[in-house]
Write a structure and sequence with these properties.
alpha+beta, 8 helices, seven-stranded mixed beta sheet, Phosphoribosyl-aminoimidazole Synthetase, Chain A, domain 2, 60s Ribosomal Protein L30, Chain: A, six-stranded mixed beta sheet
Length: 306
């Protein structure tokens, strides 16, 4: 049986070299943090996108593909309330690519970096010798904005669970032109103490499970409270789509009930915030739906599944 993505991450994390004083956050969160000197650090994340898996090269433009590649990494910055500073991109291109295609791809990469006030500062490029399709790997560097970055591991029983935006149906087209919630994450973290946060890249059910596992807690989600996107509303089971489709790239975070009430009362930004449940001490992830409470399995996307 093939291991899941989370099992592979736990394998690497369990065999990582003992953290030195310079490694502040290691394997397992949305970004790693490395100390540079007294009072200074950098956060790092990397993502790889493959044609046929993360985008359809026959339907998406090269500008959209380049934009998405950068924004996936910038969404990791948002997940920890980190402001991005620079991006490095490595690209493996098909043998058919020429100047026109490279300029279009570059245009998408820089469209994303310009939108978030950071720079494309380098990378690498290579070409398949025979067959082969498009592969992009982006690395983002950022700095914490509000003291320490927000990790996955701080959720507490009694916390309220919130999400930004609307969920589900992203595979129709939104996954190519989403907006990483960097500004929203920084704004939220400046207004109230956030205990734990993650971006919804693989689906609410899967990413909530990750947050709870890292924090050693459970959760109860109210199905009727989940904000469902217009695209997901057209599906046979909109709630299932909102829970499991993935690539929403919205924020999922927890905070005290008092902080939640304060945030919702003061939030005036265009991106909505919705309270969808609470953190429990059971270690179980549950969904309240149609008058009953049921186990909520991690049914989102797994990068290692076939």
């Amino acid at each position: 049986m093939n291991p899941t993505e989370d099992e592979i991450i736990r394998f690497f994390a369990g065999r990582a070299e003992p953290s030195s004083a310079s490694v502040m956050i290691g394997i397992g969160d949305d970004m790693a943090q490395v100390r540079l000197g007294r009072g200074s650090s950098v956060l790092i994340t990397t993502d790889m996108l493959l044609a046929g898996v993360h985008f359809d090269i026959s339907r998406a433009t090269l500008d959209q593909i380049g934009y998405k590649a950068v924004c996936v990494s910038l969404s990791d910055c948002a997940a920890m309330a980190v402001r991005p500073m620079a991006v490095v991109a490595a690209v493996a291109i098909p043998v058919s690519f020429g100047d026109v295609e490279l300029k279009q791809l570059h245009g998408g990469l820089t469209r994303a970096t310009a939108a978030f006030g950071c720079s494309l500062v380098g990378g690498d490029i290579t070409r398949w010798k025979r067959s082969g399709s498009l592969v992009l790997c982006t690395t983002a560097l950022g700095r914490p904005v509000v003291g320490k970055p927000v990790m996955r591991s701080g959720a507490r029983p009694g916390d309220r669970i919130c999400v930004t935006g609307a969920l589900g149906g992203s595979r129709r087209s939104r996954h190519l032109e989403f907006t990483p919630r960097v500004a929203e994450a920084v704004n939220i973290a400046c207004k109230v103490p956030v205990h734990a946060m993650i971006d919804i890249s693989d689906g609410l059910s899967t990413d909530l499970t990750r947050l709870c596992r890292h924090s050693g807690v459970g959760a109860v989600v109210e199905a009727e409270a989940i904000p469902v996107s217009a695209d997901a509303s057209d599906t046979r089971d909109p709630i299932s789509a909102a829970l499991n489709d993935g690539e929403d790239f919205e924020l999922l975070f927890t905070l005290s009930s008092r902080s939640c009430a304060k945030l919702l009362a003061r939030w005036t930004e265009p991106t909505p915030i919705t309270e969808i449940g609470r953190i429990t001490d059971t270690g179980k992830i549950r969904l309240r739906r149609s008058g009953g409470v049921y186990d909520l399995p991690a049914g989102g996307y797994d990068h290692m599944s076939r």
